[in-house]
Design brief:
This protein has about 325 residues and is of the alpha/beta class. It has two domains: about 180 residues, P-loop containing nucleotide triphosphate hydrolases (Rossmann fold); about 100 residues, Magnesium chelatase subunit I, C-Terminal domain (Helicase, Ruva Protein, domain 3), CATH 1.10.8.80. Helices cover about 45% and strands about 15% of the residues. The strands form four sheets. The protein has a five-stranded parallel beta sheet. Strands 3-4 form a two-stranded antiparallel ribbon. It has a two-stranded antiparallel sheet with strand order 6-7. Helix 9 crosses helix 11, helix 11 packs across helix 12 and helix 12 runs antiparallel to helix 14. The protein is globular and about 70 Å long.
Length: about 325
């Protein structure tokens, strides 16, 4: 199959023009945190959900809210607590005595951007209610099923330090998140800007620069980004090295890995690499794209053994070893 890379490149360059407008608009409110904004856009362009892990006060909620304003999309935030019920998320049937009938009241999950704040604070049945919405993009209330409006993106946050009274997300649910993004502190210059903006109360209003329809159109373009067979092979090697490290001269990783990346890891690594190339306004994927997003796609899909935990080996270490060893095309 012959692909005209030159023409494709020009087309993608035109289709991805809105990315700069978005970055400019979100930059009015968010200082630094380019990595997080980029990852949220990746989720948006690939229909993938994002799990954000970071300490409180790192502008997670602000980033998501700002992005939804810039895209002119509906935003809702759900604060997860131990006493939350599935109906608090998806909605419920309300009885109307005057009409003597039940009517549906939709919950906060009916939005384009749903922020599930501290998702690990809620019990399993609430997490599973959100799971149907994430996976099937639909919600069942009573005996009616409602389609959720696209673009639909769940952004869940979890606090890595305070694990008292939390319900860790089961592996099957964590696997549903396309990316797990770790958010770190801003550097000193960025933090100086943050202080100044807050003291002066200098926040420019966000105006919509992109319509949701443009995002849906961009998703079509992302799928057209060219991926060579060598890159496909590279992605498969990375994922297979996490399952059978012995086959890739990584025998010492064998005792540290409980389970490796699922087929979802391969699919997501491929589609996220295409989206990353799109964000960089390129019509083809290069190995650097795969390496750049590999940690975010893989870190929640590799299970560690007790031995790894005893030796303080993290998922990051394992991914770094794999990337250093697997041959780059």
């Amino acid at each position: 199959m012959h692909v005209d890379i030159e023409a494709l490149n020009q087309q993608i360059f035109i289709d991805s023009a809105f990315v700069e407008k978005l970055n400019e608009e979100t930059g009015k409110v968010i200082v630094g945190q380019h990595h997080m904004i980029e990852r949220l856009l990746l989720g948006l362009l690939t229909r993938g959900h994002v799990l954000l892990e970071g300490l409180p006060g790192l502008a997670k909620t602000l980033a998501i809210k700002t992005l939804s304003q810039a895209i002119n999309a509906k935003f809702s935030r759900i604060q997860f607590t131990p006493d939350l019920l599935p109906a608090d998320i998806i909605g419920t049937m309300i009885y109307n005595p005057s009409k003597n009938e039940f009517s549906v009241r939709k919950g906060p999950v009916f939005a384009n951007f749903v922020l599930a704040d501290e998702i690990n604070r809620a019990p399993a049945k609430v997490q599973s209610a959100l799971l149907e919405a994430m996976q099937e993009r639909q919600v069942t209330i009573g005996n009616e099923t409602f389609k959720l409006q696209e673009p639909f993106l769940v952004l869940a946050t979890q606090n890595p330090i305070e694990q008292e009274g939390t319900y860790p997300l089961p592996e099957a649910q964590v696997d549903r998140f396309m990316l797990k993004v770790k958010i770190t502190y801003p550097n000193m210059e960025d933090e100086r800007q943050i202080i100044r903006r807050n003291l002066e109360g200098d926040f420019s209003p966000i105006s919509p620069v992109v319509e949701p329809e443009e995002i849906l159109k961009a998703r079509e373009s992302v799928r057209k980004v060219y991926m060579d067979e060598k890159i496909e092979r590279y992605i498969l090697d990375i994922v297979f090295a996490s399952r059978t490290p012995g086959d890739y001269n990584l025998r010492n990783l064998g005792p540290l890995i409980n389970y490796g990346g699922s087929p979802r890891a391969s699919i997501n690594l491929a589609i996220a690499s295409k989206a990353y190339a799109f964000l960089k306004r390129r019509g083809y994927v290069i190995p650097e794209d795969v390496r750049n997003i590999c940690h975010d796609v893989m870190r929640h899909r590799i299970g560690l053994t007790y031995e790894a935990e005893a030796e303080n080996v993290t998922q990051e270490d394992i991914i770094n070893k794999i990337l250093d060893t697997v041959e780059v095309p």
